[in-house]
Design a protein that fits this description.
The protein is globular. A hairpin with a 4-residue loop joins strand 20 (about 380) and strand 21 (about 385-390). It folds into three domains: about 5-120 and about 265-335, FAD/NAD(P)-binding domain (3-Layer(bba) Sandwich), CATH 3.50.50; about 120-265, 3-Layer(bba) Sandwich (FAD/NAD(P)-binding domain); about 375-440, BFD-like [2Fe-2S]-binding domain (Arc Repressor Mutant, subunit A, Orthogonal Bundle). The chain contains 20 helices and 21 strands. The longest helix has 19 residues, at about 340-355. With about 475 residues, the protein is α/β, with parallel strands linked by helices.
Length: about 475
């Protein structure tokens, strides 16, 4: 086992990079672990490599390019960086088991910063398991990573800021046959407007201008947008060939070559839950969030969560949450004085608050439809084990009152994704059927390994010991 570090940061997105740089600059011995071959996370994926690609940079926009400064700051620090490295087990005492190049290693730190970010909310609609159905995030990753753009007729179905951002990026990338199916409920607008006065402060106006600019660009290019879409169904036998839906009072069907779904993002829960961090249901974001104090420390002493993993805040705000985590750790390690801590904390908190003024408005405006959260009986919920919503409802009526009991009855959540894709939906279905609150219903019990690890890889650790 390597010597004790002051902090291990898991994830090299905006939150993780900022936390790592701040810690290292403050004199803390810091290690950064990330599965990707380079820093940036999903939002700034491949930003270093793409900085010399003028055409792709123009497609991805200035916000994406801003990530290069965060990468440069982290690389300039003394933080130890390990990429292409998976954390497959993490313990509350600061032990982190990693896997890289076929070898397993056990690392130890006084504190942990979990900056694993967010995942796209599952969109369980009829036909979502067909070939030719992807997520908007997956298509954007392909664009950032390899400059790949969709061919043929592309249909984007869903809602949220990323939904419209990627639509605009598609146009810039040369996609000519694009149709949008906006699933946001028109009834969301009135309650969302109650949060608009707050959104005109801080950085809220900037976010609003970006949103209006994206909408205007789509209108100028004549992109067909169907609004208030419900009853979405992907049709096809061997692959997706069409989408049927209801828009207003009309039932429609359009042919397609590729469809991408998106209903916003939710925190990645696996690491925090595997450690035992307490979570609570958040009605505004319609997901479970870890319980954090003002410095982003979890219910477990010494374990912090930075970025969207602690609640969806966006890339710029995530960086400031990383700074808060790092300052708390530096203070605990006596690396900074009380006066410096208070001063820097106030600056980071003010910057974070300025980005959060828009969040209540966006959360309410793009709240997913009920049919996306609690799908119909025939819809596959657990893709790994091919379990439909009907089967989940059946075992609940037979007495299963929680996700872990459903897992035992149906193997739901026991496949390769380990419940990442079905967990939110299983909890929602059970809560609806039993009349319990989401908190009372709970979530899967997550255990290691968080990522696959072979017996041979485990054996390599003991051979070295």
């Amino acid at each position: 086992m390597s010597s004790l570090r002051d902090a291990i940061v898991i994830g090299a997105g905006p939150a993780g990079m900022t936390a790592a740089a701040t810690l290292s600059e403050g004199g803390a011995r810091t290690l950064v672990i990330d599965e990707q071959p380079a820093p940036g996370g999903q939002i700034y994926r491949a930003v270093e490599r793409n900085s010399d690609n003028a055409s792709l940079s123009a497609v991805l926009g200035s916000d994406y390019a801003d990530g290069a400064a965060l990468v440069a700051r982290m690389r300039a620090s003394a933080a130890e960086l390990r990429f292409s490295t998976s954390a497959w087990r993490i313990d509350a005492d600061g032990t982190v088991w990693t896997k890289a190049d076929g070898k397993v290693e056990r690392l130890q730190a006084r504190t942990l910063v979990i900056a694993s970010g967010a995942m796209e909310r599952p969109v369980p609609v009829p036909g979502w398991t067909l070939p030719g159905v992807m997520t908007v995030g997956a298509l954007q990753i392909m664009l950032k990573d390899a400059g790949l753009r969709p061919c043929g007729r592309l249909v984007l179905a869903g809602c949220g800021p990323l939904f419209y951002l990627f639509a605009a990026q598609c146009l810039e990338a040369g996609v000519s046959d694009l149709v949008l199916l906006d699933t946001a409920e028109r009834a969301n607008l009135i309650p969302a407007l109650r949060h608009l006065p707050k959104a005109v402060f801080g950085h809220g106006p900037g976010y609003l201008r970006k949103g209006f600019s994206l909408m205007a660009a789509l209108r100028r290019r004549g992109v067909k947008i169907h609004r208030g879409v419900s009853n979405l169904r992907i049709e096809g036998a061997e692959r997706a060939v069409a989408a049927s839906f209801r828009a207003g009072t009309h039932t429609m069907r359009i042919d397609l070559d590729l469809v991408a779904l998106h209903e916003g993002v939710i925190p990645s829960q696996q690491i925090a839950r595997s450690i035992g961090c307490a979570h609570r249901w958040n009605e505004e974001q319609q997901c479970f969030l870890p319980i954090l104090d003002s410095m982003r420390e979890t219910s477990i002493l010494g374990v912090f969560i930075a970025g969207d993993g602690g609640g969806i805040v966006g890339a710029m705000a995530s960086a400031h949450t990383g700074a808060l985590c790092a300052l708390a750790i530096l203070k605990r390690l006596d690396k900074i004085s009380d006066t410096e801590f208070a001063s820097r904390k106030a600056v980071a908190q003010q910057a974070l608050d300025a980005h959060l003024t828009i969040r209540p408005f966006l959360d309410r405006l793009y709240r997913p439809r009920d049919e996306m959260l609690v799908p119909a009986d025939e819809v596959v919920v657990c893709r790994c084990e091919a379990i439909r919503a009907r089967a989940i409802r059946d075992v609940v009526r037979r007495g299963c009152l929680g996700p872990n009991q459903v897992k035992a009855f149906l193997r739901c959540g026991m496949g390769p994704c380990q419940g990442r894709m079905c967990g939110p939906t299983v909890s929602a279905i059970i809560a609806r059927e039993t009349g319990q609150t989401p908190d009372a219903t709970g979530y899967y019990r997550v255990r290691p390994p968080l990522k696959p690890v072979s017996i041979g890889e485990l054996a390599s650790q003991y051979e070295e010991d």
